[in-house]
Amino acid sequence: MLFLFILGLVLGAVSVIFALQNVTVVTVTFLAWQVTAPLAFILLGTMMCTVIVVLLMLLPSLIRDEFHVRAIKREKRAIEDEFAQYRTTHVPAPGAPDRPQVTPEGS
Questions:
Q1: Residue 93 — very low, low, confident or very high, per pLDDT cuts 50/70/90?
Q2: Whole-number Å distance between alpha carbons of 22 and 42
């Protein structure tokens, strides 16, 4: 936890230094759009768009995995219920007399 905190502080400091050193205003043109802003903001916006695209690409697999986990939990619950029912009908209670052992007739 402390390592992640320190890593966050270092990355924050590097980001601030980067932003302060890249205050040059640039113009970016894409199709009919034209944006004029400091270079640091343009790069930050580009990184944010990349993060959003990656998250959107991961979303279908995350949803599929969540459905799979729910199905496994449902199956686990059903097996646990079945086992509990088996124990109540087949396992003698503590202190109850033992059942007679049944041996095959040929022995």
A1: low
A2: 10
Please state the pTM of the whole predicted model: 0.54
pLDDT at 105 over 80: no
Tokens of 7: 């890593």
CA-to-CA distance for 85 and 80, rounded, in angstroms? 9
Beta partners for residue 29, in sequence order: 34
**86, pLDDT greater than 80:** yes
Enter the tokens of residue 23: 């205050």
What span, in angstroms and rounded, lies between the C-alpha atoms of 46 and 25? 16
Angle between helices 2-21 and 39-90 (to 10 degrees): 160
pLDDT at residue 1, as a whole number: 78
Name the one residue in this structure whose structure tokens are 């936890």: 1
- Whether the Cβ atoms of residue 61 and residue 68 lie closer than 8 Å to each other: no
Structure token digits, residue 58: 């991961």
